[in-house]
Design brief:
Number of helices: 11
Family: Belongs to the transaldolase family. Type 3B subfamily.
Radius of gyration: 19 Å
Bound molecules: erythose-4-phosphate
Number of strands: 8
CATH topology: TIM Barrel
Largest sheet: 8 strands, parallel, barrel
Oligomer: single chain
Distance between the termini: 42 Å
CATH architecture: Alpha-Beta Barrel
Catalytic activity: D-sedoheptulose 7-phosphate + D-glyceraldehyde 3-phosphate = D-erythrose 4-phosphate + beta-D-fructose 6-phosphate
Number of domains: 1
CATH superfamily: Aldolase class I
Order of helices and strands: EHEHHEHEHEHEHHEHEHH
Strand content: 15-25%
Protein name: Probable transaldolase
Enzyme class: transferase
Pathway: Carbohydrate degradation; pentose phosphate pathway; D-glyceraldehyde 3-phosphate and beta-D-fructose 6-phosphate from D-ribose 5-phosphate and D-xylulose 5-phosphate (non-oxidative stage): step 2/3
Length: 217
């Protein structure tokens, strides 16, 4: 399973990259705003900075909601850096734009996916990634993991190459459950990645090994 970090915070991205296990970054307009990155030029520069830190794919989301503007904006984003993946919302014009970009060999991430039917449309349009929002479904008492499982089954039935990018990950158990289901990618905050390191028996075991080493030396 690929590990993406879901943030526009350069320190968090660098920390995950330094672990050596990071495969990419996802961002969205809210994450950019959280870091105080506003205005077209600053946003484009920030994407470039992210691409310089990581080796993998960097999802950059369009703001436009109609086909012509999505195409213009997506082409500008894609031309920024070879690692950029154009992120498009799952609306009719987003699906049209996804088909347009996939026909041109420009990679896409179809976002704001909350149903298996939406994921089927994204795959039909040739999306590189589809982003079902696990945590936001859980937030409204709906089984987000079940959606990931449904999409896995549908994509496997027909051999769709669109990769399932489990998004809106909140914690480590989401990561583990997505891995069990066979999600291709997960994207979450730094804590959902570094939390996987933690086990008290590891800490206790290491302390004992080091103490025993000191006794003998
Ligand atoms: C996906 O690419 C989105 O950026 C993201 O995962 C949204 O997560 P949230 O529900 O934590 O905002």
């Amino acid at each position: 399973m690929k590990f993406f970090i879901d943030t526009a915070n350069l320190d968090d991205i660098a920390e995950a990259q330094a672990l050596g296990i990071l495969d990419g970054v996802t961002t969205n307009p809210s994450l950019m705003a959280k870091e105080g990155i506003t205005g077209e030029e600053n946003i484009l520069n920030h994407y470039k900075k992210i691409c310089e830190i990581v080796d993998g794919d960097v999802s950059a989301e369009v703001i436009s909601t109609d086909f012509d503007d999505m195409v213009k904006e997506g082409e500008a984003l894609a031309s920024l850096h070879p690692q950029i993946v154009v992120k498009l919302p799952l609306i009719a014009d987003g699906i049209k734009a996804c088909k347009y970009f996939s026909d041109k060999g420009i990679r896409t991430n179809v976002t704001l996916v909350f149903s298996a039917g939406q994921a089927l449309l994204a795959a039909k349009a040739g999306a590189t990634y589809v982003s079902p929002f696990l945590g936001r479904l859980d937030d409204i008492s709906t089984d987000g993991l079940n959606l990931i499982a449904e999409i896995r089954q549908i994509y496997d039935n027909y051999g769709f190459e669109t990769q399932i990018l489990a998004a809106s990950i909140r914690h480590t158990m989401h990561v583990i459950d997505c891995a069990k289901i066979g999600s291709d990618v997960m994207t979450g905050p730094l804590s959902s990645i570094t939390g996987l390191l933690k086990h008290p028996l590891t800490d206790i075991g290491l302390a004992k090994f080091l103490a025993d080493y000191k006794k003998g030396n």
